[in-house]
Amino acid sequence: MNKQIVFLCVGSSKLTGDSLAPIIGDKLIESNLPCYVYGTTNSNVNRKNIDNYIDFISKVHPNCILITIDAGLSKTIPVGSVKVSKGGVTPGGAIFPKSKKIGDIGILGVVNYYDNDIIKALSVVNEAFILDFSDYIVNLIKKSYPSISNIN
Length: 152
What we know:
Blueprint: E1 5-9, H1 20-31, E2 36-38, H2 50-60, E3 65-74, E4 82-86, E5 105-113, H3 118-123, H4 127-149
Parallel strand pairs: 1-2, 1-3, 3-5
Antiparallel strand pairs: 4-5
Helix pairs in contact: 1-4
């Protein structure tokens, strides 16, 4: 039996660079993949409410495969890279590096280079880039979905 797939798309629509995951959330819902999506441009998952979402998901979707998606800044990885990792991602890791990882699988889209002014680094990201990058990541998810849904 395949496990439920749940996407937790973390970010804010208020900062262009940070809106990557909520836009991906919108596009995953439109894709009609057989999955659950939390975090969209109209309903952001962020630092203030993420614990509520985690509690909700653990109750409503026990034993699911939780895939956490977030935008990231990097000192070394090129902008436009996608980092997929087992064990989730640390949402807001650039601002809160001691936060815990969330998810079984993590997808991190590098939207800009790390800067001491993180808000500025996320604000100056080109919106067209974010829209194209979100399409790219959603297409990767669609192509790999059959493999993901068969993980035990």
